[in-house]
C-alpha cells in the first residue's frame, strides 16, 4: 500500500477521531470528524468497486460542497483510482461550450466516470446528451462499505491536476502517490505543523492545486482541524474569512493577492476595534508569482488593529508540476523583499542588491522581489542560462527543479509528455535567481518583453500602470507584440470604471503611457481601456497574458492608431 493511503487510514483510526472538518458556515455549520469522513469514503469505495471500477481508472469529480468532495476523493483513492477535479461552470458559463471542453478533458485523461454532486447535479442531462458516464455521489454514499482499501503502489497515479494554462488545449499534471506523500509531508514539516493544535481555514476552490492539495488533502491525511467554505461564499461576503479565523482561533490560511487586497480594504472600514481577533494566525500563505507587496501591506496594516501579527504573511513558491509546494519562506519572518538595480537586471541578467540606505530605493531605478525561501525537503533547485549552464548566486536564469515531488509528466490531447530531462530536471519556465539558497522569482520566461537588448518584466509595467488613479488594482496586463522579431513591442490592456467615456479613456491611456515610460524607459505601443470583468483569468484569479494578447489584438492595433 502507498504511504499516502496508509497515512489516511491510520489518521482515521487515530487523531481523526477527535479532529475533523467544519462545513456549511455561516448559516448551518456541520462538523464531521475525519474518522466519519473516512466511513463515508469507505461506502463510496464500496459503491465504486461494486460498479466495476478497476484500479488505476481516472475518475473525474464535479461538485462544489466540501462536505461531499472530501469523502468522494478519499473514496476514489481507497478504490485505487486517480482523481481529477473538473473546472466548474459558473452562472455566466456557456454550458454547451463547457460540455465540449469537458468531453475533451475526459477523453484526454481516459476517465471512466464522472462523480456528480450538488449544485452540479442539475448538469446530469448535459452529461447524458454528450454520452458522459456519471454517477451521483449521494447514491454511492449509501453503498456497502469496502472493508480494505484496494492496494496501490508509490508510482500509481493519485491526482491528474488540470493546469490553468493560457492555451485552449487542456493539460493535466500526473501526480503519483509517491509525489503526493513526499510533498505534503515536506510541507507540514517545514511549516512546523502540530496536528492536534493547528487549525486551518480555507475558501480556495478544490479544482485548484492549493485548495485541493494544501487545504483538503493535507488536513485529511494528517488529521488537522479544517474549516472549509466555497469561493462563492467568500466572494459574496469577504469578511466571512476573518470572521471564521476569529471564531475558530485559526492558525493557518492561504489566498491569492487579490483576496488579501479585498479583505485588507474591507477590514480597514470596520468600525469596532474588537470585531475580530486575528492574533492566532501564524501562517497566511501567499503563493502568487509575483507576490504583490501593496496587497500584502493593505492586509497587514488593516489586520494590525485586530491583533494580527504581520509576520504571519508566508510567501511561497509552488506549481502543480512539483505536486504543490516548491519553497516556503522562513516561518514567521513575514514578507522579505530583495531590492535590486533595474539596469543590471534588465541588461545583464544580474540581481545587484541595493543597500537599505541607498537613495535610489523607491525610485524607478530599483526593482523589488519577494524572497521565497529554500526548496522543501526532497526538492533541489538550480538556475541555468539559455544553454543549460548552471549559474551562480544572484545570476538570473531559468529555475529548474528535481526531486521526489516532481511529476513524471503531463497528459495532453496528443498523449503523454514527459516533464523531466535525462537527469531528472524539470524546466519550470520561471526566471529567477538564488540568494543564500533562497529562491527569488522575476517572472515567466514566455512573458518577458525583449526590447533594445533589455529583458523587461511585465510585472514592472503592470505595477506602473496600476499606480495610476482610475486603473483597477491588479487588473492591468502587459502583453508582448511581434514576440521574437526585431519589432518586438508591448501593449498595456487594463480595466477601469472609466471605460465607455471616450474622453476619460484617452486621458487615462495617456497617463498610463507616461507612467510606464517613466518606470521602464519605454513607451507602450498601445494602451487599451476595458470595462470591469473583461480580462481573461485563470480559475485562481491570475490574469492570462497570452490569452489577453490574442483576445484583444484588434483593439490593441486600433488603439495604437490613435
UniProtKB/TrEMBL annotation:
Pfam families, per database record: AMP-binding
GO MF annotations, alphabetized: adenylyltransferase activity; ligase activity
One annotated Gene Ontology cellular component of this protein: plasma membrane
Segments passing through the bilayer: none
AMP-dependent synthetase/ligase domain location: 27-411
Family matches, as InterPro entries: AMP-bd_C_sf, AMP-dep_synth/lig_dom, ANL_N_sf, FAAL/FAAC
Keyword annotations from UniProtKB, A to Z: Ligase
A GO biological process held by the record: fatty acid biosynthetic process
Protein family per UniProt: Belongs to the ATP-dependent AMP-binding enzyme family.
Protein name: Fatty-acyl-CoA synthase
Organism of this sequence: Amycolatopsis sacchari
Amino acid at each position: 500500500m502507498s504511504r499516502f493511503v496508509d497515512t489516511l487510514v491510520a489518521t482515521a483510526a487515530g487523531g481523526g477521531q477527535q479532529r475533523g472538518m467544519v462545513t456549511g458556515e455561516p448559516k448551518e455549520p456541520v462538523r464531521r470528524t475525519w474518522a466519519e469522513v473516512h466511513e463515508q469514503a469507505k461506502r463510496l469505495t464500496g459503491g465504486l468497486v461494486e460498479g466495476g471500477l478497476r484500479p488505476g481508472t481516472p475518475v473525474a469529480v464535479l461538485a462544489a460542497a466540501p462536505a461531499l468532495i472530501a469523502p468522494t476523493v478519499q473514496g476514489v483513492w481507497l478504490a485505487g483510482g486517480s482523481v481529477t477535479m473538473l473546472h466548474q461552470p459558473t452562472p455566466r458559463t456557456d454550458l454547451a461550450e463547457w460540455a465540449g471542453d469537458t468531453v475533451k478533458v475526459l477523453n484526454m485523461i481516459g476517465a471512466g466516470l464522472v462523480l456528480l454532486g450538488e449544485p452540479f447535479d442539475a448538469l446530469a442531462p448535459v452529461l447524458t446528451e454528450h454520452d458522459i458516464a456519471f454517477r451521483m455521489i449521494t447514491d454511492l454514499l449509501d453503498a456497502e462499505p469496502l472493508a480494505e482499501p484496494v492496494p496501490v503502489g508509490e508510482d500509481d497515479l493519485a491526482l491528474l491536476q488540470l493546469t490553468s494554462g493560457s492555451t485552449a488545449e487542456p493539460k493535466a499534471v500526473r501526480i503519483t502517490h509517491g509525489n503526493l506523500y513526499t510533498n505534503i509531508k515536506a510541507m507540514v514539516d517545514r511549516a512546523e505543523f502540530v496536528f492536534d493544535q493547528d487549525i486551518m481555514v480555507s475558501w480556495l476552490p478544490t479544482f485548484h492545486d492549493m485548495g485541493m492539495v494544501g487545504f483538503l488533502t493535507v488536513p485529511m491525511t494528517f488529521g488537522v482541524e479544517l474549516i472549509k467554505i466555497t469561493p462563492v461564499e467568500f466572494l459574496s461576503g469577504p469578511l466571512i474569512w476573518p470572521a471564521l479565523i476569529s471564531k475558530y482561533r485559526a492558525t493557518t490560511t492561504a489566498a491569492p493577492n487579490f483576496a488579501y487586497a479585498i479583505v485588507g480594504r474591507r477590514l480597514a472600514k470596520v468600525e469596532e476595534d474588537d470585531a475580530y481577533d486575528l492574533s492566532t494566525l501564524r501562517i497566511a500563505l501567499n503563493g502568487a508569482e509575483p507576490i504583490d507587496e501593496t496587497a500584502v501591506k493593505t492586509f497587514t496594516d488593516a489586520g494590525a488593529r485586530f491583533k494580527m501579527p504581520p509576520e504571519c504573511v508566508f510567501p511561497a513558491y509552488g506549481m502543480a508540476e512539483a505536486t504543490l509546494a516548491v519553497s516556503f519562506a522562513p516561518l514567521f519572518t513575514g514578507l522579505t523583499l530583495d531590492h535590486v538595480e533595474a539596469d543590471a537586471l534588465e541588461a545583464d541578467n544580474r540581481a545587484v542588491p541595493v543597500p537599505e540606505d541607498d537613495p535610489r530605493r523607491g525610485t524607478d531605478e530599483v526593482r523589488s522581489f519577494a524572497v521565497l525561501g529554500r526548496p522543501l525537503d526532497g526538492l533541489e533547485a538550480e538556475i541555468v542560462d539559455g544553454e543549460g549552464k548552471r549559474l551562480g548566486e544572484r545570476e538570473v536564469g531559468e529555475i529548474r527543479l528535481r526531486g521526489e515531488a516532481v511529476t513524471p509528466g503531463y497528459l495532453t490531447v496528443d498523449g503523454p509528455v514527459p516533464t523531466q530531462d535525462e537527469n531528472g530536471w524539470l524546466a519550470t519556465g520561471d526566471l529567477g535567481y538564488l540568494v543564500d539558497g533562497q529562491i527569488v522569482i522575476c517572472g515567466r520566461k514566455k512573458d518577458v518583453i525583449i526590447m533594445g537588448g533589455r529583458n523587461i518584466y511585465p510585472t514592472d509595467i503592470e505595477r506602473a500602470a496600476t499606480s495610476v488613479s482610475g486603473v483597477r488594482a491588479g487588473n492591468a496586463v502587459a502583453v508582448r507584440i511581434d514576440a521574437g522579431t526585431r519589432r518586438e513591442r508591448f501593449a498595456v490592456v487594463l480595466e477601469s470604471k472609466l471605460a465607455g467615456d471616450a474622453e476619460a479613456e484617452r486621458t487615462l491611456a495617456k497617463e498610463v503611457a507616461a507612467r510606464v515610460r517613466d518606470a521602464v524607459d519605454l513607451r507602450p505601443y498601445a494602451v487599451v481601456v476595458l470595462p470591469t470583468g473583461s480580462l481573461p483569468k485563470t480559475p485562481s484569479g491570475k490574469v492570462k497574458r497570452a490569452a489577453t494578447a490574442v483576445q484583444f489584438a484588434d483593439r490593441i492595433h486600433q488603439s495604437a492608431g490613435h
